[in-house]
Amino acid sequence: MSLDPQPLAPALEAAEAAGRTTVRLDLDGVRGKAELMRCCGDALRLPEWVGGNWDALADALRDLSWLPVPPGGGWLVAVTSWRGYADARPGEWETLVEVLEEAVAFWRERGGGPELVVLLAEAGPSGPVAGAPPRTPRLKRRRG
């Protein structure tokens, strides 16, 4: 998961050039978990069997069989306009970050196959950029 500031457009272009399927998860206006889960479902084109809870989202992110993957590629999920949600629901935001970090680690540990990359992006004064302060992942028990 990238927490270092980077321009969004070049990151998306580079990911597509590298054979990654790109997905933009736009959290603009999202202020609650139910909205977040709907947004994730729409952006990631999650199957109907995926429930609206953290564990179901985590399971789905370890599957991703419904998202096309070019040979030798993987996926890039660009999470945009996330600060409003993070400010409105800091506990839920931390859980979402954990779910995303665990999914990235799952695909990385498989080795030799498709890989999941997550980029946190936020529009700034000079255009869309990624960024957030570095944090130490904390594992905690997720709840429905």
Quick structural overview:
The protein has helices at 8-17, 33-43, 54-61, 83-88, 90-110; strands at 20-26, 74-80, 116-124, 127-130. The protein has 144 residues and is an alpha/beta fold.
Beta strands, count: 4
Count of runs of 4 or more consecutive helical residues? 5
Main beta sheet: 4 strands, mixed
Instruction: Give the distance, in angstroms, between the N- and C-terminal Cα atoms.
Output: 24 Å
Question: What is the strand and helix layout of this fold?
Answer:
Blueprint: H1 8-17, E1 20-26, H2 33-43, H3 54-61, E2 74-80, H4 83-88, H5 90-110, E3 116-124, E4 127-130
Parallel strand pairs: 1-2, 2-3
Antiparallel strand pairs: 3-4
Helix pairs in contact: 3-5
Walk me through what this model shows.
The model is unreliable at 124-141 (pLDDT under 50). Strand 3 and strand 4 form a beta hairpin. The protein has a 4-stranded mixed beta sheet, sandwiched between helices. It is globular, with a radius of gyration of 14 Å. Helix 3 (54-61) runs parallel beside helix 5 (90-110). The protein contains 5 helices and 4 strands; from the N terminus they run H-E-H-H-E-H-H-E-E. It has 144 residues and is an alpha/beta fold. The chain has helices spanning 8-17, 33-43, 54-61, 83-88, 90-110, and strands at residues 20-26, 74-80, 116-124, 127-130. The longest helix is centred in the last third of the chain and has 21 residues, at 90-110.
